[in-house]
Design brief:
Shape of chain B: elongated
Order of helices and strands of chain B: HHHHHEEHHHHH
Radius of gyration of chain B: 37 Å
Structural class of chain A: mainly alpha
Strand content of chain B: under 5%
Helix content of chain B: over 70%
Strand order of the largest sheet of chain B: 1-2
Largest sheet of chain B: 2 strands, antiparallel
Number of helices of chain A: 9
Number of strands of chain A: 4
Largest sheet of chain A: 2 strands, antiparallel
Shape of chain A: elongated
Largest interface: A-B, 126 and 129 residues
Strand order of the largest sheet of chain A: 1-2
Radius of gyration of chain A: 36 Å
Oligomer: heterodimer
Helix content of chain A: over 70%
Strand content of chain A: under 5%
Distance between the termini of chain B: 115 Å
């Protein structure tokens, strides 16, 4: 049975579009819970129109960035995203006929798409919110009752969508980026993010979930607010301690690895009890020892070589001196012999 | 003023203990609020007992731990010795370089054991507070069990939070001294005992536990629960799970990549590539690449240097053999000249 091949762009776009749909669904429930559709009589219009807007925009985004609607215009000219179809097969670069230039082109398109993913979700997500607000305003006979709720819920969803779609894009294109870097000679890397920010974002989701829940519950008692505050405080403390420890370990490894090529006798020690870090530390120490031994061996070998070369030179000089002396002696003997023959 | 300015110096063990006690207090407050908002104290008439009794048990338990470990009361001789070792050899979280190898081993064993013993101690303390609160409520209410379930459920939730994270607090505060012990041990060639390890993956999972518990509590304590709120919580949970998996999955991937690279380094491999966009990982990969190159090219240089050396040695041997023959020839010539000179003198 032949395996159906999924185009690379669809592989990349699916998680982002899926996440966008989930965020839109959250916004949909938020609006539905808090908006007063009874007084405006627009419940049916909202229930039907909002999903249609989301569906249409998702299709448009897929077609546009997938290269199905021709070249994509960027700030630096146009970009042919169809290279992804030509050069990527089964989620891997077609390694048999790829040049450095093509690998760079693929990398540029992917990097552009990753950056664009962030802009696109803000732009198109904002457009959906705008459409929902306008249709509510018109269909309710220009009433502003629900506009604030729609805008607020839209902003919360957009916020979640915008912040995390970038990481979905990163995760999806990461294997191809790795392959592209193999073909490239240049060592400058761009669009880098920080692990520290990712750790901070881990906390953002619980904060948003709890806040949204409190916002949507019709009557919130003091005890529920207090529980939420203590719960969030505990989450902040634990998050801070956990990520600080893990991030600190990363920095320690980074600092140690910077000095590894220098070949000095160094020991990597960490205070963590995490299995992954301990095994990494042991590998780093082995490598450090190996580099140090290589360096010492090389130095010793070069010193020995120098010594032997000097010895050879000394021998050479001595030999030349001796040869000259021998020539002198031979001449002297010859002279004696000649003189003897004459007499 | 000078007295005020003088910094009060806490012993190292106090700095290990303080974060866990703080966390214990926070978990206690969490349980206290949960019980106060759900229990029906008007029916049992035990509100005052609970309001005063619970904080008292909490305070009393924390005090016992403090007295036990800080002052060394009610402890075994071995623990007392270890506590003294910490006091004598660790100042301001810094292990003295002059500490003997035997003492370093003992300090390391005590601290790493403490990380796991905390789990046990936290459970015992939590269970003690919870059972005391239940007992007081039961007796004070005239053996009424109305609020016992609420106290039990809330207590278990707080206990889970306290116990799951308390050993992480010790890990975090003890990490500096554990690191110094390992560093000194490696320098001196001392073998330290193997310790039980944790994983980074399980730590990320724990982070999710707090959110699940907090949201569940909010849902549990809401006066009325409708379908829409449940749906909202479900979507929120799904989003959190997805994000946690994507974010921490990428961090864990980065770690396993580095682990793979580091294990390949000693095998003369220097082509490392990463698909990560995290600055730290990209820099690390580049550093590993350089280190790998260093090993690879050093070994190549050693190899060529060794070959050159062998050539020079054989050249030297060749020279020696030639020179030895020439030396004999020189001696012969000298003798010949001497004979010629003698013959000439005789003739004259």
């Amino acid at each position: 049975m032949k395996k159906i091949e999924i185009p690379f762009f669809i592989r990349v776009a699916t998680p982002i579009i899926g996440w966008a749909v989930l965020c839109a669904f959250l916004g949909y429930i938020l609006i539905y819970l808090r908006a007063d559709f009874e007084s405006t009589g627009t419940q049916k219009i909202f229930v039907v129109s909002f999903p249609i807007y989301v569906f249409l925009i998702a299709i448009y985004v897929g077609l546009r960035y997938g290269g199905y609607l021709g070249k994509t215009k960027t700030r630096n000219g146009s970009l042919d995203t169809s290279i992804l179809f030509r050069k990527i097969e089964n989620g891997r670069l077609k390694s048999d006929n790829i040049t450095e230039k093509e690998a760079e082109e693929v990398l540029n398109v992917l990097a552009y798409l990753m950056q664009e993913a962030l802009r696109a979700v803000w732009k198109h997500g904002g457009f959906i919110v705008f459409l929902a607000v306008i249709s509510e305003y018109i269909s309710s006979g220009f009433k502003t009752t629900n506009l604030l709720v729609i805008t607020l819920a839209g902003i919360i969803s957009l916020f979640l969508l915008g912040f995390f779609s970038y990481f979905f894009a990163q995760t999806s294109i990461s294997p191809i980026i790795k392959e592209c870097r193999r073909y490239l000679k240049r060592r400058d890397f761009f669009y880098l993010t920080s692990l520290k920010n990712k750790f901070n974002l881990l906390f953002l989701v619980p904060l948003l979930v709890v806040s949204v829940m409190l916002f949507c519950v019709p009557s919130v008692g003091m005890d529920v607010v207090l529980i939420s505050v203590v719960g969030l405080l505990m989450a902040i403390i634990v998050n801070n301690i956990l990520y600080k420890l893990i991030y600190q370990t990363f920095l320690e490894i980074e600092e140690f690895s910077k000095n590894l090529p220098k070949g000095e006798k160094a020991i990597f020690a960490t205070g963590t009890l995490d299995r992954e870090v301990l095994s990494l530390g042991s590998n780093l120490n082995k490598t450090s020892q190996m580099i140090y031994e290589s360096k010492t061996k090389l130095e010793k070998s070069q010193k020995e070589l120098e010594q032997k070369t000097q010895e050879l030179e000394k021998f050479y000089k001595a030999t030349i001196k001796r040869e000259l002396k021998m020539v002198g002696l031979k001449e002297e003997i010859e002279n004696f012999k000649n003189e003897e023959n004459k007499t | 003023m000078s007295v005020l300015k003088k910094k009060i110096e806490f012993s190292y063990f106090a700095s290990l203990l303080a974060p866990i006690q703080g966390w214990g207090l926070l978990c206690g407050i969490f349980g206290y609020i949960l019980i106060l908002s759900k229990a029906d104290f008007t029916a049992t008439g035990t509100r005052d007992y609970f309001m005063i009794g619970f904080p008292l048990f909490l305070f009393f338990s924390l005090l016992i731990v403090w007295i036990k470990y800080y002052f060394g009361f009610f402890t075994t001789k071995k623990t007392k010795e270890s506590l003294n070792l910490l006091k004598e050899n660790i100042i301001k979280s810094k292990l003295s370089e002059r500490t003997s190898s035997e003492k370093i081993k003992k300090i390391y064993n005590f601290i790493t054991d403490l990380v796991y013993n905390t789990f046990k101690t936290a459970t015992i303390l939590g269970v003690f507070i919870l059972s005391s609160a239940i007992l007081v409520e039961w007796i004070a209410s005239g053996y009424n069990i109305e609020n016992i379930i609420v106290i039990l459920v809330s207590g278990i939730i707080s206990l889970i939070l306290f116990v799951s994270f308390s050993s992480l607090f010790v890990q975090s505060s003890a990490s500096n001294v554990i690191r110094q012990c390992r560093l000194i041990a490696k320098r001196r060639g001392i073998k330290l005992k193997k310790v039980k390890t944790t994983t980074i993956g399980s730590k990320f999972d724990l982070l999710f536990l707090i959110l699940v518990l907090t949201v569940s509590m909010i849902l549990f304590y809401l006066p009325s629960l409708d379908f829409n709120i449940l749906l909202l919580s479900l979507v929120g949970f799904s989003m959190t799970i997805i994000i946690n998996k994507v974010l921490y999955g990428s961090i864990l991937d980065a770690f396993s990549q580095i682990q793979d690279f580091s294990s390949e380094l000693s095998k003369e491999r220097y082509e490392f590539y990463t698909g990560s966009f995290d600055r730290e990982i990209v820099i690390l990969t580049e550093n590993f690449k350089r280190a790998g190159e260093k090993i690879y090219f050093s070994n190549k240089k050693i190899e060529s240097s060794r070959k050159e050396l062998e050539e020079k040695i054989s050249e030297l041997e060749r020279f020696y053999n030639i020179t030895r023959h020439r030396e004999l020839r020189l001696e012969e010539l000298k003798n010949e000249l001497e004979i010629a000179k003698t013959q000439k003198n005789e003739k004259n």
